[in-house]
Here is the input.
Amino acid sequence: MEQEQTSDKIFNVEIDMISRDHLKTITVWARIIALVGLINLGLTLIRLFANPAGTGAAALIGMLFFVLIYLSVMTLLYFFLLRFANRTSASLNTQNQDQFNSGIGSLATYFKILGIIIIIVLSLVGLFFMFLALGAAFR
Amino acid sequence: MDQNTSDSLFGLHVDSEAVIQFREGTKWARFISVVSLAGILLVALIVTFAGASFKNALETYVPSMGSVDMDMLGNIFVVVVIIILAIVGFIYILLYRFAILVRKGIQQRNQEIFNDGLKYLKYYCIINGVIALLGIVFSFLGTIMELLK
Here is the structure.
């Protein structure tokens, strides 16, 4: 078992000095992106409450619903990016393999959420054009 | 040399668990970059071919700007949009390179290719970070203006 693990380490790709340097820079900037993104979400919320649209209550509730969904999804996205940055950065200092794997897992989750958002947006755009075409056909 | 081997034995490496995570991450990163590049290409084509209609719309809705050359204004609009699209496209090309090279590096167990892939992720993060920092400045200004209204 131990021998198998050792050969796994020798033949697999390792985190050498070059990749360590790249990962350090990546984690610094990923942390900046996540923190700036979270601050930006807070500012969006402030702007929304500072000057709510002067329409009816139903429209306001509808808008709030979409804003809440947007804020939740974006917070989740930045949370995983921040977790990737923190865990990977810490693992580079402590040489903790589990922490490193967990950090890379968070990066994978970040890309997964981003991909799912793109799929949802594309589906909504597709639906919009479908209804537009249907509306034009039945006019 | 011996020290290098012992360093790799005790240091971090891409083990089977990390391979699974990298494969998952690069799969989604490739999807995101390909879809985004296709979208950017589509928008670039629409803007290029709709440039003439934009000029007509400008002439119809802003007739008071008679002294301004509408042709030139329309061309400037098209060029600005194309430049923005080119920058965004470049960012997604970096993401695509990361996805392809890291996957290839792990598959072929090639350290150089793997490091190259991480280099592209580094550039992707730096450019996105700079754009995020510029964006937060405008966001701050927007919020202050909103609060002062």
In short: The two ends of chain A are 71 Å apart (CA to CA).
